[in-house]
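Hi everyone,

Forwarding the result from last night's run.
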Amino acid sequence: MKKNIVLLYICLCLSSTLFADQSMQQNAANPNTISFQVILNNDNKPNNSIAIATIQETKTFSQQVTKLWNIHSPLPTEWQNKTTSFLKANKYKTMLFIVASVYAVLCYEVIKGYMYLNKENLWSSWRSTISFEELLAISQQQLSQELLRDIQLRYTNAQNINDFISPLATFLNDIEKETHYINYYNKLNTWLIRLHLSTIIPVSKKHFDGSKERLQRLAYLKNVFLSWATEYKIVTYQPKISGYIDKKATS
């Protein structure tokens, strides 16, 4: 803040000097303009009375601003002393407030995790009526076709039905986000159990115990999708690449 006051003082000095120079230019251009008059000495140098008066006014203004700053803003050491004395006088209340705040944040994160994992549109819940082993038993070709159909149904824009690529990109983005969130809640649950806080924080094993299988499902769906994308790219662009290579070889 004191640096700001110094900068304000410099700006005022510069603006006052520029105002004086502008006034002299206006007098030279228009003699009828009322302005300050600069008296020339014998050496044809301008009188410094206006500059001295301006500096004195800005100096007085700076002193007033500094005085107000000292009145309304205590010094850092004074603020630190007040804070230290307050914490010492209210030590137990402060500790109780910190513990209650940490407990409230942990409960909020756990509840938010429950709400997130209970969403029905998560890809980790896709085909949840069958077990993960049964999902692995389905051929990748059949599974990829079913997955692509559901991707297009979920993400296709009604205003741009012919857009085939955007739903696929959105799917990959949602897979990455969902993996990140499930990993986060899984680690949170692990640390709560390690610190023996699961007895005082409402942790449900039903929701967090299935996080490992959810991550396996997401990884498998991502692998199935990328395998299909690789095959689709080869089938689509291989004739064009082969034609380009043959054309370049003959030329």
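The two ends are 73 Å apart (CA to CA).

Cheers,
N.
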